[in-house]
Every structure is written in C-alpha cells, then in structure tokens.
Design brief:
single chain; Diphtheria Toxin Repressor, domain 2; 2 domains
Length: about 170
C-alpha cells in the first residue's frame, strides 16, 4: 500500500450530478442568449463562433434542429468563462424591468389625469422638470373631453406620449 501523496489536489473532481447541473445551467444560458433580440446581443462580448451559433439557432424553426443547436451552444459555453455573459444578461433583464416600471408609472399618471385627479399634476411637474404646465393642461383637457364624449383614444395617446417624452430616464 502506497502512502498518500502530498502533491495531489485535495479537492475531489466534480461529481456526475454536479457536471450535469453545470451543463443544464450552460444550456439555459444558451437559451437565454437565443431569446435576446439581435440588438441586445450586440451589447454582450461573445466569441465569433458562439455569436454565429446563437444567430443560427435564432433562425432555426424545426424543434429538433433548434434543440441540437442550443445543445451545441451549451458545448461552446464550456470553453469560455460564462460569468461576464451571465452578468450582461442580468443587466439586460434589470433594464427591461426598469423600463416596464416606468411605463406602468406613466400609464397610471395618464389614467389618473384623464379620470379627473388634478393633484397628480403637481407630482408630475415635480418629477419631470421638462414638462410644460400649459401644454400638459391642454392635453389633459382634450383627453377628458374625449372620454366624456366616448370618442377614440387619440388624445389619451398624445397625453401618454407627451408624458413619456418629458419623463427623465430611470
């Protein structure tokens, strides 16, 4: 019997289950990359081979072929450090969440103004320094008239677009 070697690495290799979990995580990361729009993908630093594989997977419609392409992307992800890619995806998702919150806030403002809540106008003017009180009042007046008369949502859309324009980016 040999004495234990002191040169050996004390950490054991990953178990089969750990390797499978890591492969599933890489595959999920690949699916997330395929789900991005091409504009969002350009903001992530990817090797050219991986970028081409993601682009091909995005174009592939056949279920089996798409699944195989995503598995291939997972294989390519084994060869590179995936932490920067994961962080970039998190930043994209966080940015989308911020945009959604801002959109909902603007919708709530528009609805409150259209429904007759004049107190919200001061909140909007305080939050949006670029807003013009006179133009905002005119748009609100038109939206209220439109609602009373049961017309289409044209004035409400204009009010919403104006609020989007003057709201500072988050």
């Amino acid at each position: 019997m040999k004495p234990p070697s002191h040169d050996a690495d004390p950490t054991p290799p990953p178990s089969r289950t750990q390797r499978k979990k890591a492969d599933h995580a890489r595959k999920a990361l690949g699916e997330a990359l395929v789900a991005l729009s091409p504009e969002q993908e350009t903001g992530i630093d990817l090797p050219s081979e991986l970028r081409a594989a993601v682009s091909l997977a995005r174009k592939t419609r056949a279920h089996g072929a798409r699944r195989r392409q995503i598995q291939y992307i997972g294989t390519l992800l084994r060869q590179i450090d995936i932490d920067p890619i994961r962080k970039a995806l998190e930043n994209i998702q966080r940015g989308d969440l911020v945009k959604a919150r801002a959109f909902k806030r603007i919708e709530a403002w528009r609805d409150a103004l259209r429904d007759g809540n004049d107190a919200i106008m001061e909140e909007i003017l305080a939050a949006c320094p670029a807003a013009d009180r006179q133009q905002l009042r005119q748009l609100v007046r038109n939206a209220r008239r439109e609602t009373r008369e049961g017309k289409g949502p044209g004035a409400s859309r204009k009010l919403f677009k104006y609020l989007q324009k003057v709201t500072p980016p988050c």
